[in-house]
Write a structure and sequence with these properties.
255 residues; alpha+beta; six-stranded mixed sheet; two-stranded antiparallel ribbon; 12 strands
Length: 255
């Protein structure tokens, strides 16, 4: 036998190759199981009792400790994250589109859907609320060459006045504007900066996703100086839902 051969048909190179194949298969299997810690098991509209997992199976539940005394989280979740949806299928077949039965922008249907996130604010590495108004983050300022939205009026897609910007909410971790704060009919409302269609110096701020009178129903805040993860999801979902549900004409096909 040649040097390195274990038998006439197997040598060290073959053993190493087979060992690598086994290791690589195990690695892919492990990673595929780990990426099912979030979002699984899936549900099917055939029956609420059917849970879709696929291959491989879910990993064993693991407890994660959150920083800054944020408690613990189990993943995969052991409790049910399902909630009743104010919509019904348009047909009896599996996968039929859902038709809203109430106000979809408030009920979280379609593009207005939101996740059940923790009702606590996102925090920085120092344990402080991450997204706050500039009246709290006093070390932030707006560049003099950029338009300052404070005091500027906001109009909806129909051109109707919604309110006036009273403050700017910034991200302490990634220095940028996240929300504009509006005063609408005596209540505090946040407008995600991504839904601002135009904001020029000396002009009104235009938002095309919702109408002027729909700003009054934007989900509110528990604390006027911070926003929780759950509140962020609901607020952004409301504006996102308006792109489809703000007017009946947006539900119709273009052609």
């Amino acid at each position: 036998m040649e040097t390195g051969a274990i038998t006439n048909y197997i040598d060290v190179a073959q053993v190493v190759l087979y060992a690598f194949w086994i290791f690589f298969f195990g690695l892919v299997l492990y990673l595929r199981r780990e990426d099912k810690r979030e979002g699984y098991p899936l549900v099917t509209d055939r029956s609420r009792r059917i849970k879709v997992v696929g291959f491989p199976d879910l990993p064993v539940a693991k407890k994660f400790t959150l920083p800054h005394g944020g408690g613990t989280r189990m993943a995969p979740r052991t409790d049910s994250a399902e909630r009743d949806i104010a919509a019904k299928p348009v047909g009896p077949w599996p996968g039929a589109p859902l038709h809203p039965t109430g106000n979809p922008m408030k009920d979280g249907v379609g593009p207005a859907a939101y996740a059940n996130r923790p009702d606590v604010p996102d925090i920085t590495h120092l344990g402080e609320p991450k997204i706050v108004p500039m009246r709290v983050a006093t070390d932030f300022s707006i560049e003099k060459k950029d338009p300052d939205p404070r005091g500027v009026s906001v109009v909806g897609a129909d051109g109707k006045m919604a309110g006036e910007v009273t403050d700017v909410w910034v991200d302490r971790s990634e220095p940028q504007i996240r929300y504009l704060e509006l005063q609408v009919k005596g209540r505090q409302v946040l407008l995600p900066i991504n839904f601002v269609s135009s904001c020029k110096r000396g002009q009104v701020i235009r938002v095309n996703s919702i109408l002027g009178d729909q700003f009054a129903d934007v989900p509110g805040l528990t604390n006027p100086d911070q926003v929780t993860l759950q509140e962020e999801d609901k607020i952004c979902a409301y504006y996102g839902g308006g792109t489809l549900y703000a007017t009946p004409s947006r539900l119709d096909p273009l052609l």
